[in-house]
Known about the structure:
The protein has one domain (6-149): CATH 2.40.50.140. 7% of the residues lie in helices and 47% in strands. Strand 5 (73-87) and strand 6 (90-104) form a beta hairpin. The N and C termini lie far apart (41 Å). By secondary structure, the chain is mainly β. The relative contact order is 0.17. The model is unreliable at 111-116 and 124-134 (pLDDT under 50). It has a five-stranded mixed barrel with strand order 1-3-4-6-5.
Amino acid sequence: MYLNKAFLIGNLTRDPELKALPSGSKVASFSIATNRTYKDRDGKKQEQVEYHNIVAFAKLGELCAQYLKKGQSVLVDGRIQTRSWEKDGEKKYRTEIIADNVQFGAKMAGGGSSSGAPAKAGEAPVPAAPTGGASDTIEYPSEEINPDDIPF
């Protein structure tokens, strides 16, 4: 049995770019940065950054293009694929992660945070609740909640 599975948690280095294939299907591409911290031989703390190209197709690609922004954290679950092509007589290669699932993380600048609900093909992410300003306290309604009023 063989396994080709990648799990990455990182921050978007650019906004996703959405394109349409000749078949009409949508494809989003973006990149994320991951890092690792380690101590070198001299005991000094070092940090190494890796950049990963991510591709999401169909509905998942549309959701990524709509909700993800540069700097936002994200968890990507997918498979590794290397494609090749020839340009000007020279063979080019590109290794990508083909996303199966994407879980949106907190947005970096100003926009509050998202729910962290996973986005899968055919599912819409749960929108983030408004944060109510500088206070992180939860405001409960003054009247009692009727279970029949809950939409799910």
